[in-house]
Design goal:
By secondary structure, this protein is α+β, with helices and mostly antiparallel strands. The protein contains three helices and five strands; from the N terminus they run αβββαββα. The structure holds guanosine-5'-monophosphate (5GP).
Amino acid sequence: MTIFSKIIAGEIPSYKVAEDDAYYAFLDINPVAKGHVLVVPKKEEDYLFDLDDGTLAGIALFSKRVATAIRKAIPCKRVGVTVIGLEVPHAHIHLIPITKEADMLFTHAKKKFEPEEFKAIAAAIAENFE
Ligand code: 5GP
């Protein structure tokens, strides 16, 4: 079981922003920007492009809804999208609010937030999720 499957199952806590039958979205614990969200399929698959076509299409549409909510909740120009992961063997899409390209750099120092701040950010995004 991957760490993300444990998060989906509620065995490891997360700051959830959205969920449906097939996907789960939560705050990245080491965010490169305020409102950095990970979207994962509930079905465990290591590599995004190994997902079956339906799940791959579905995660794009689910991410669109999450990105729309992020953009309403977090001041930004756009929500950037990246799939970069080599760390966790469970496909995940990074959604990152940006005002400039450099806001998406994973080589930058990660942002630090207190649990209360993470909670408030997740709640603000969740409130705008439709
Ligand atoms: P990647 O595989 O995309 O390089 O990195 C995995 C991402 O998942 C990282 O941005 C990391 O901060 C995040 N991450 C790893 N473990 C956890 C966790 O237990 N909880 C949360 N919320 N995020 C995690």
